[in-house]
Design goal:
heterotrimer; A alpha/beta (279); B alpha+beta (342); C alpha/beta (267); B: 342 residues; alpha+beta; eight-stranded mixed sheet; four-stranded antiparallel sheet; 10 helices; C: 267 residues; alpha/beta; four-stranded mixed sheet; 8% strand
Chain lengths: 279, 342, 267
């Protein structure tokens, strides 16, 4: 039956663990089976089911870019049973991996356009994959701007990468923390992401916006983008819902007629407008 | 293939069951259990309750068991290994006496489990399944097959459909290749039908109250009518009885059991009626109240499945309503939905 | 019934309550819970020997609570549940209006919990003879026979949780089975998962169960769950001389201590 078992995970080994923020870790994973590692491919936006055998599976996007071969990365916050079990693992330990699942960011349609990435808190991981993918193919796109915010300085994830992006002359990076979340030596912005976005007064001309964050941030960011003239079709986001199978069979991740695991997780604001708030 | 109609004399039923049994097939049929009927393994026709209007539970377990191992895992010399269950040992199964509603339900299950990716646990069982359906001579107030595009003599999903005539003999419609193979196990039992044998006069009369397309359109248009859904769901307990007795409900959970060194991954039944069904780890619940959960049940069966998978998720068997501890009568609720002003 | 309908109508008309939780005609000969919010619909209310569902369960359900202050049609089991819920601080005296029904079907005047306590103390309802016979049968079994009996009965369970949802005392917003750190009770309905679920629920109800039998009536598979609860009721009554649902003050046998409590269970 082997290949036909759609619920069977591949075995991956944790090659490296990075502490991103309190309670947040990134795993760099490689396939135990080198052949699987060679043939594995995915596209930005897709997610996977990660197993701790004996505890269960949980769903995260793939946070590394498909342009970087030989490994994949995921970033997660310790929150429940499986993420707590993941937190106890060390480099060298093995986990299960099922994927890639879901739809993709339509990067091919974005050639020549400016890209405005807006992310909040722990939602930077799905964007990180996309950002690196775009930066690895930099000359396909126009201006690249990244606006990222978290509650406090300590909560900013991928600090190393933020510095790297900010250091590039072909990327504009704006980081912000919520009022009260700054440290004495904080040199970035202070304010909620949607407010900082308004201050930036971004141009909507020939620009695609990609937004990921907590529901409240997304709501106000959409309003700010609409005010700046962005059409709903030009604003992308990812949705999350409780998942189990990841392949549209267990019946629990649907938002109206749409399955987050199959028709998502990538959606435009135009699509979300028509969906019931079941996420 | 061309459908053949034959006659199976009432006294030949025993021989048919015997022959199927002898061929190594496991036969499930409705059997009286206390005050109810349930599908049970039978090796003789005498146990079968031919007068059963409906069993309490559906027969979906033969395709979608309550608990099913989908993986084993064990750590050997430090390396984690996984193993698939051996599906080749699954038995050949014959469901006998499945009413047309239940037979049609197989199509709904197939749509879910073969949509986009093939679920081998389901397809392996479906391959090994043959259905000898039994038309309905009687219906009760809970039945509404004719309101969902089916009927007491519908052939969808049956390999052979038997209709009991006034004489007690059965008209046997042999509908598929599988049906032909089954009949070929005892060809002498399938005689030429008598001239003028009329199937329709042997069927129960089930007045239609609506069409499923009407429900589909009204439900979709009425999605935001919170008061309507909340009102219908007020007495709903939020248990899983309706989902579990339903022949088309297939939502499931995945649970690991064992230790991190050795154990199994199981798939088990779940229900959208449970509060925790959509609960996020963060504590956020997209469907916090029973109204939206009841709406999900109706929308999934009458709107989402037809839209995405070209099949409806309700066959009008009425089991949910019979089993519901608080008399949530789905036919009544759907009529109320259609009659409510939007 | 006329008096019930009149009282219900008046309560709604005067605005004393926002909803009357009672019984109405259901499918065929069934009855079902109804939630009357309009005085004009009070005529839907019925009460007869078919009306056995313990409506007290709705007093703790969020969707019903948000309708506003309820009146509730309550015969003996529901009255006991109301007292037990009060003792467990789930409802206060002014939260509800009780439309009490006596054993003879007549309306009772129960303006406060003290009146309910008085009625409960002076009312006895004999167990159904068939249920009593089954209870005695199982009680007389040897331990091996009993184990075999329960394995057989509980193996049929498919964990729909109708028993839990129908029970007025199972009002926890997060049930033990929904806890997965650790997963105390296995989720799947295999034999072990079923046994652990039912034994745990019976234990969580020990000293709290008001013996309404709704769990068994709700079970779509006719598993005689009432036997488990009734055994524990019998056990707690004999050991601690305590019965659930008799007073609105907290009186939970398994968390109150008296110097003269028996300790013969420690050997």
């Amino acid at each position: 039956m082997s290949d036909a078992n759609v619920y069977k995970p591949s075995i991956m080994r944790i090659e490296k663990i990075t502490e991103e923020a309190p309670g947040v870790r990134t795993f760099r994973l490689v396939f135990n089976d080198p052949e699987e590692g060679r043939t594995f491919d995915f596209k930005a936006g897709q997610f996977a089911e990660y197993s701790v055998f004996g505890e269960g599976e949980c769903t995260f996007c793939i946070a590394s870019s498909p342009t970087r071969k030989g490994y994949i990365e995921c970033t997660f916050r310790q929150a429940g049973r499986v993420t707590s079990a993941l937190f106890d693992l060390e480099a060298g330990d093995t986990i299960g991996f099922r994927g890639p699942y879901g739809n993709i960011f339509p990067m091919d349609e974005w050639k020549g356009k400016n890209l405005l990435f807006i992310a909040g808190g722990i939602a930077l991981p799905p964007m990180r994959c996309l950002i690196w993918n775009c930066l690895d193919l930099r000359d396909r796109f126009g201006d690249v701007t990244i606006l990222y915010g978290a509650r406090t300085v300590a909560d900013l994830v991928y600090k190393h990468e933020l510095r790297e992006w900010a250091g590039r002359s072909d990327v504009k990076v704006v980081t912000t923390v919520d009022p009260g979340g700054e440290t004495p030596d904080w040199k970035g912005e202070i304010g909620f992401v949607p407010a900082v976005l308004e201050r930036m007064a971004p141009s909507s001309v020939n620009t695609i916006a990609i937004v990921c964050g907590p529901p409240i941030m997304i709501k106000f960011t959409f309003l700010a983008l609409a005010k700046a003239g962005f059409l709903p079709e030009a604003i992308f986001t990812t949705l999350e819902n409780r998942m189990k199978c990841g392949i549209g069979k267990c019946g629990r991740c649907n938002v109206g007629p749409v399955f987050v695991c199959k028709d998502g997780p990538v959606f435009t604001f135009a699509q979300i407008k028509d969906l019931p708030p079941e996420y | 293939m061309e459908m053949e109609t034959r006659l199976l004399k009432k006294e030949a039923l025993a021989g048919l069951i015997e022959k199927i049994n002898a061929a190594g097939r496991k036969i499930y049929a409705p059997v009286r259990v206390g005050d109810r009927d349930e599908f049970r393994p039978v090796d003789s026709a005498s146990r079968i309750d031919l007068g059963c209007i409906q069993t309490t539970q559906s027969a979906k377990e033969v395709l979608f068991p309550r608990v099913e191992r989908i993986l084993s895992f064990s750590r050997r010399d430090g390396a984690m290994e996984t193993a698939d269950p051996d599906l080749s040992i699954l038995p050949e199964v014959v469901l006998f006496g499945l009413h047309p509603c239940d037979a049609a339900a197989i199509g709904s299950l197939r749509a879910i489990f073969t949509w986009d990716t093939q679920d081998a646990f389901f397809t392996a069982r479906l391959e090994r399944l043959a259905v000898i359906g039994l038309s309905c001579a009687e219906a009760d107030e809970y039945c509404f097959c004719t309101s969902v595009g089916l009927g007491p003599g519908a052939t969808d999903g049956s390999d052979i459909l038997l209709t009991r005539l006034a004489s007690g003999d059965f008209l046997a419609e042999i509908l598929t290749e599988k049906g032909r193979e089954l009949a070929a196990l005892s060809p002498g039992l399938f005689l030429s039908p008598p001239a003028g044998a009329d199937k329709s006069s042997a069927l129960a009369v089930v007045e239609a109250s609506f069409t499923r397309e009407q429900v589909r359109d009204r439900a979709k248009a009425g999605f935001d009518e919170d008061a309507l859904w909340d009102g219908q769901a007020l007495r709903c307990l939020g248990c899983g009885a309706c989902a579990y007795v339903c022949p088309t409900c297939a939502c499931f959970d995945i649970q690991d059991e064992g230790t991190t060194n050795r154990g199994v991954r199981l798939r088990c039944w779940d229900s959208c009626g449970f509060a925790a069904f959509t609960l996020h780890t963060s504590g956020h619940n997209p469907r916090e109240e029973q109204g939206p959960r009841w709406r999900q049940r109706i929308m999934h069966k009458f709107s989402y499945m037809p839209e995405r998978q070209n099949v409806f998720g309700c066959v009008g068997c009425g089991r949910c309503s019979r089993a519901c501890p608080v008399d949530m009568n789905i036919k009544e609720h759907l009529i109320a939905l259609l009659e409510a002003r939007s | 019934m006329e008096e019930l309908r009149k009282r219900a109508g008046n309560l709604l008309e005067s605005g004393q309550v926002r909803v009357v939780i009672g019984y109405g005609e259901g499918t065929g000969k069934r009855v079902r819970a109804v939630f009357i919010q309009d005085a004009g619909q009070a005529d839907c209310l019925i009460f007869d020997e078919r009306c056995r569902q313990n409506l007290a369960l709705y007093l703790t359900r969020h969707e019903v609570k948000k309708l506003g202050k309820p009146a509730i049609v309550a015969s003996l089991p529901a009255l006991r549940a109301i007292l037990q819920l009060a003792g467990e601080c789930q409802i206060a005296e002014n939260d509800i209006v009780v439309l009490g029904i006596g054993e003879d079907g007549s309306m009772l005047d129960l303006p406060d919990f003290a009146a309910i306590e008085k009625h409960v103390a002076s009312t006895v309802r004999e167990p159904d003879p068939a249920e009593k016979a089954q209870f005695d049968l199982v009680l007389a079994m040897s331990l091996e026979e009993r184990w075999k009996y329960w394995q057989e009965q509980l193996s049929r369970c498919f964990k729909c949780y109708a028993c839990r949802q129908a029970c007025p005392m199972c009002y926890c917003s997060r049930c033990t089975v929904e806890c997965n750190q650790p997963q105390w009770i296995p989720v799947p309905s295999h034999d072990l998962g079923n046994l652990e679920w039912h034994v745990m629920r019976a234990m969580h109800l020990a000293g709290r169960c008001v013996d309404c039998g709704d769990c068994s009536r709700a079970c779509p598979l006719d598993i005689p769950l009432y036997l488990l609860n009734r055994f524990l009721i019998m056990d707690i009554e004999s050991r601690f001389n305590q019965r659930a649902g008799t007073t609105a003050a907290l009186d939970y046998a398994l968390s109150t201590f008296h110097p003269d409590d028996k300790d013969d269970f420690i050997r």
